[in-house]
UniProtKB/TrEMBL annotation:
Similarity comment text for this entry: Belongs to the RNA methyltransferase RsmE family.
Domain of life: Bacteria
Purpose of the protein: Specifically methylates the N3 position of the uracil ring of uridine 1498 (m3U1498) in 16S rRNA. Acts on the fully assembled 30S ribosomal subunit.
Protein name: Ribosomal RNA small subunit methyltransferase E
């Protein structure tokens, strides 16, 4: 039987705790129809501690939970994986946030590029998607979601920081990833549906950065973002 997981600011100290978050109580009582005796998993967003708890009391105002056991800490990826992805059309960017979270991304930075069509994002909705994907996938750390940045600024920040900057382009023939140390972070740059513009490719070259390809096949931008994240995280 599936055990539901929830990530929030839980004080997992002692053998019981109270939950007063109205949205969470509504989800538990009205949507999921939890009742006393229900076993769930809670993850404290601050400490990453996970606990198996039992619902003792549940109403519209509060829930009293009994802590059954604290679970061992789950290791995340051996390195940070920062995904710089162009804002994509329709629900494609939301799909990237969901799937990249599932495969181990550390941070997601939306990019505004010359060929970006959709400019606006609902960060509150994206955060909710990231939290739900973290809960579903068994992770304990919710990825950081940054405000959108122009491609030129994001690239300059990445080059100036420690770690490996990798720009992916469907026109590249290089599919071999460079060797990195175990703790060296990856900064992965994925362009929009139409690819990087000539000016953006020149900007990449001006930083003495090669471009990489993920496959001899042509991948959609959202597919490339998730594949690159998975390979970097694993």
């Amino acid at each position: 039987m599936k055990i539901h997981r929830f990530i929030e600011k839980f004080e997992l100290v002692g053998d019981q705790l109270w939950v007063n978050d109205r949205a969470l109580l509504k989800q538990w009582g009205l949507v999921l129809r939890f009742r006393p005796g229900q076993i769930i998993l809670l993850i404290d967003q601050a400490t990453k501690q996970e606990a198996e708890v039992e619902i003792v009391e549940l109403n519209q105002k509060a829930a009293r939970l009994k802590v059954l056991r604290l679970l061992p800490f789950k290791p995340e990826s051996v390195r940070a994986v920062n995904l710089y992805c162009a804002i994509l059309k329709k629900e494609n960017f939301e799909w990237v946030v969901q799937k990249a979270t599932e495969v181990g991304v550390t941070a997601i930075v939306p990019l505004r590029t010359e060929r970006t069509i959709k400019q606006d994002l609902r960060l509150d909705r994206l955060t909710k998607i990231a939290v739900e994907a973290t809960e579903q996938s068994g992770r304990v750390s919710v990825p950081t979601l940054a405000l959108p940045l122009p491609f030129s600024k994001a690239l300059a920040l990445s080059v100036a920081s420690p770690g490996l900057t990798m720009c992916f382009d469907m026109g590249s023939l290089d599919t071999k990833w460079p060797v990195v140390t175990s703790d060296q972070p990856y900064d992965l740059f994925i362009g929009p549906e139409g690819g990087w513009s000539p000016a953006e490719l020149e900007l990449i070259q001006s930083h003495n950065l090669p471009t990489y390809s993920l496959s001899t096949n042509v991948l959609r931008a959202e597919t490339a973002a998730v594949v690159a994240t998975y390979l970097a995280a694993n």
